[in-house]
Amino acid sequence: MSSARRAFLKQAGISAAALAAIPSLARAESSDASPQAWSMSLHGEFEALEQQQQEAWDTTWTQRVSAKHKAMFDVPEIADGIGVFRGAIWGAQYIDALKVTPADLSTVIVIRHSGIPLAMNQDFWTTYNVGKQFKIKGEDGKVIKYNPVLAAPGAPAPTGMMATAVLDAQISKGAIVLACNLAFRSIVATVQKQDKLTPPEAREKAKSMLVPGVILQPSGIFANVLAQECGCAFVNAV
């Protein structure tokens, strides 16, 4: 685990035992791990916009952004998963400092750009070697196999605050998690290339590997703006 991530999570009150249940990461410096590998060019964005004109998008999540305190966490990078964890930490801090209840909070997390693999389940990470693509290594120097914002398979279940900070736990407790469809095209392309599928087949398979509860949106910027129109404070989470 990177020292920055360990320090951040410990400062947030997450115990060492809880940390052990989450994959340890340390991003290695490499030109091959640049964000451009997962991002869309401007031309590609316009092309995607034309292709998705007939697709129906679920924006009913806006009806759930109704609490007194509302925040949207923009997560454009993997960054050891810190952007996602901040979605849980701010709520805990509000409850502690302002003596509010969970019902007083609306949390929106927007996963986009190079952060899009965080929206994918552990099967996707292992099957398509996400850690290898990004040169993300653990403390043992080996490339990691797992999504850092989900509990690692075979590890003890997260405890304490981390038990509610992992992505699926946040979703189960009412957090709204949105994913950028433009960035998701890179996920589809990865599936299509490795599994030799047609584009529609690859998209359906990729969608089946999203973390349950993640909602695709036309783009991350679309989601960011819409969340702010619902009254969310914008948080640059990474």
CATH topology: Hypothetical Protein Ychn, Chain: A
* Morphology call: globular
Helix/sheet category? alpha/beta
Relevant CATH superfamily: DsrEFH-like
- CATH first level: Alpha Beta
Compute the CA-based radius of gyration: 17 Å
Q: What's the total count of β strands?
A: 7
* Helix fraction bin: 40-55%
* Main pleated-sheet profile: 5 strands, parallel
Describe the protein:
The chain has 238 residues and is an alpha/beta fold. The protein has a single domain (3-28, 64-236), classed as Hypothetical Protein Ychn, Chain: A. The chain contains 11 helices and 7 strands. It has helices spanning 3-11, 16-19, 42-51, 82-98, 122-127, 130-134, 162-165, 167-172, 181-195, 199-208, 220-229; strands at 26-27, 69-75, 105-111, 136-137, 176-180, 215-217, 233-236. The protein has a 5-stranded parallel sheet with strand order 6-5-3-2-7, sandwiched between helices. Strands 1-4 form a two-stranded antiparallel sheet. Strand 2 (69-75), helix 4 and strand 3 (105-111) form a beta-alpha-beta unit.
Summarize the structure.
The protein is an alpha/beta fold and 238 residues long.
Secondary structure elements and their pairing?
Elements lengths: L2 H9 L4 H4 L6 E2 L14 H10 L17 E7 L6 H17 L6 E7 L10 H6 L2 H5 L1 E2 L24 H4 L1 H6 L3 E5 H15 L3 H10 L6 E3 L2 H10 L3 E4 L2
Parallel strand pairs: 2-3, 2-7, 3-5, 5-6
Antiparallel strand pairs: 1-4
Helix pairs in contact: 9-10
